[in-house]
Write a structure and sequence with these properties.
By secondary structure, the protein is mainly alpha-helical. Helix content is 83%, strand content 0%. It contains 2 helices and no strands. It has helices at 3-19, 28-64. It is rod-shaped, with a radius of gyration of 17 Å.
Length: 65
């Protein structure tokens, strides 16, 4: 379940490097998107940690039963 999140973060990283090219530097929209990119990645990491913690909790409750 965490693999799709990893792939999205990798695509965001590649897209960020692509948007840093010289022909996109005049666009304000691209500048704002690049500024928000680390925050979006951080949010996805938080979601991944919550999913992993929930999965571990579910496995722990199965072992206790």
């Amino acid at each position: 379940m965490l693999l799709p999140i990893l792939l999205v973060v990798i695509l965001m990283c590649v897209a960020g490097h692509f948007l840093l090219q010289a022909n996109f530097q005049d666009s304000n929209l691209v500048e704002y998107m690049l500024a928000a990119l680390p925050f979006a990645m951080f949010g996805l990491v938080i979601v991944a940690f919550k999913m992993a913690a929930k999965n571990e909790k579910d496995e722990q409750s199965e072992q206790d039963s």
